[in-house]
Predict the structure.
Amino acid sequence: MILAWCALGQTVYLAGDSTMALGGGGSGTQGWGVFLPQFLTIPVVNDAIGGESARSFSDEGRFTNLVSSVRRGDFVIIEFGHNDATSGAIDNGKQDAVGDGYNITSIVTTANGTQILIHSFAFYIENAVDSLLQKGAVPIISSLTPDNIWSNGSIAPGGRFVTYAESIGLRRNITYINHFGYTAQAYNQLGQTTTTTFYPNDHLHTNSDGALVVAEAFVRGLLCSESLLRLKVNAGGQGVPNGCL
């Protein structure tokens, strides 16, 4: 069994939203996951989909499909948060119950007036983590990427979903990559004028140049972690800019 698995090799799977996905958020944009393969020695399957949250990725069966695809030893990078915020009086099918923890719920009202129970960001992700661990896969939790929003000459601090992602990593004793922090470090080094050229349409979605910087930032975070995936970073990846946080 071990020999058969080694012969097949390992794969990296990506689960996330438009900031990671092929095609990004529309015309002129690209997700950072598209550039990750050039820094690794093993293949990458990008299952990120624009507009998804941890909840919708779960409810639509996308986590289930991903778990069905992975083999023992595969890596799965999970990065959500941009679409997980509260949606107002009417549920949008993406918002999570507010709070940093697994056993948090909320009652929301759908467009047809039905009330339903929703769960926390951690609930949806940790359920996926459990299923991946049962398959023998290696989940990696990554915080969401920064928006092009600045405060006093630096990228504005991350919000609650950065904290939520870090908490999941600590609580489940799995690798956490502060992708927000590493990308903010890169942007701050480049400066606001250059960074703004990466955002052709809005403050969220990068063009290809920006996606490459964001991918490099993830690789830097990976190299500074204890994840076994860091051993799969190739020579090009070893040379990505900036240092450990």
